[in-house]
Amino acid sequence: PTAAEERGEVALWCEATHGAQPDSGGGAIAASLHALATPWKQEDQAAWLVGLTGAALGVTAALRPHEATAERPLTVGRQPACGLRLQDAEVSGQHAAFWYEGNTVMIADRPGSFNGTYLRLSAEKVVSDPWPLLPGGSLLIGGMHVKLVADKGEGEFAVEVRSTKDAKAPAEVHKLSGDKASIGRAARNQIVLNDQLVSSVHAELIRQSDGSWAARDLGSSNGTCFRLSAERTPSEPFPVRLDQSVMISSGAKSCELQLMKRLASAAGIRGRRATMEDAHLVLQQLPPPVPNAAWPQLAVFAVYDGHAGGEASDF
User: Fold this and answer.
1) Model pTM?
2) pLDDT value of residue 159
3) Strands (E), 69-201
4) I want to staple 234 with a disulfide (CB 3.0 to 4.6 A). Which of 3, 112, 126, 211 is the partner?
5) Could you list the residue ranges that cross the membrane (predicted)?
6) Do 181 and 175 form a contact (C-beta atoms < 8 A)?
7) How far is CA 277 from CA 5, 116, 266, 307, in A?
8) Where is pLDDT greater, at 287 or 169?
9) What gap in Å lies between CA 235 and CA 117, rounded to an integer?
10) With 90 as the cut, is the pLDDT of residue 117 above it?
């Protein structure tokens, strides 16, 4: 046996198809493959943080339940000791932390960054669920900060709008009346944001039955992001969904990280063949990478053997 077979990372084709009759076709073979015991263990499963923009572009880091814990989270920041290091002046020395709670990945802005950590409410052009927005809560919409504040009257609220490009400029204040307030670039919105990154009708604020407010992205191109905590204030933990994006800092140099699920595995299956010319292997698991290391790219490929002539080329 090869070293890979001894480690249990591959299974011989004859073992995988044990019990399948030669004339039974691909169905029995497929059933044998599904019944094959997998060597994957829970601690080997990994979620991946993949950098999409800014200083995070091309950066990847693995999150595993037994490694990224609340006591020993994967830290993100500018310091060399961080598990995911981002070399950008807008990123704090230690900016944010990721860890597992059960099967859920959690994030917190810790110990309290200067430029903030943001959760994107939904993917591009996907309407989000309403997100609770408490007084003092802030949204990043395009290049604008939109902050909910309590107005002078009891039960009255307003929105303060500031540009990420000029933090010293005075805020625009919009009082909230009614049960909804749309936000976007078009003049028909209740809150108009003059920014090219903002969609025509980008998001909305919704008054809940208890009088509180929630934010919802209406399927914008560039998304609506919720700031986890105020400046230099540690945040409470928030769950991160698979395929959800996290923004480290805001503005033109913001670093976008996306949580993805990649299984380092490969498998092969073939249809009915009258003859078996070669030895075949089913690859179930590649050797796991070292902690917090990852592959910058993932390739998926298939090889179509040409021994069967025209039938194989048309498969």
Assistant:
1) 0.71
2) 97
3) 74-77, 84-85, 96-101, 104-108, 117-120, 131-133, 138-141, 144-150, 157-163, 172-175, 180-184, 191-192
4) 112
5) none
6) no
7) 21, 60, 22, 9
8) 169
9) 9
10) yes
**Of 178, 205, 182, which Cα lies nearest the Cα of 192?**
182
| Contact present, 222 and 120 (Cβ < 8 Å) | no
Confidence check: pLDDT of 264 > 90 = no
**Widest Cα–Cα separation across the chain:** 83
- Pull the structure tokens for residue 251: 């503005």
In 3D, which of 126, 129, 109 has the Cα closest to residue 215?
129
Correct CATH for 120-227 of 2.130.10, 2.60.40, 2.60.200, 3.30.310: 2.60.200
pLDDT digits (tens, 9 = 90+) for 268-312: 444 444 444 444 444 444 444 444 444 444 555 556 555 555 555
The CATH architecture annotation of domain 43-115+232-261 reads Sandwich (2.60)
pLDDT reported for residue 189 = 98
What are the sequence ranges of the domains in the chain?
Answer: 43-115+232-261, 120-227
**pLDDT at residue number 309:** 56
Contact (Cβ atoms closer than 8 angstroms) between residue 116 and residue 250: yes
C-alpha 262: how far from chain center: 11
Q: Could you say which DSSP state residue 26 is in?
A: H
Among candidate residues 161, 180, 157, 181, the one with its CA nearest the CA of residue 170: 161
Nearest alpha carbon to residue 180 among 213, 217, 146: 213
Determine what percent of the chain is predicted with pLDDT higher than 70.
68
b/e sequence 138-175, b meaning 16+ C-beta within 10 Å: bbbbbbbbbbbeeeeeeeebbbebbbbeeeeeebbebe
DSSP state of 124: T
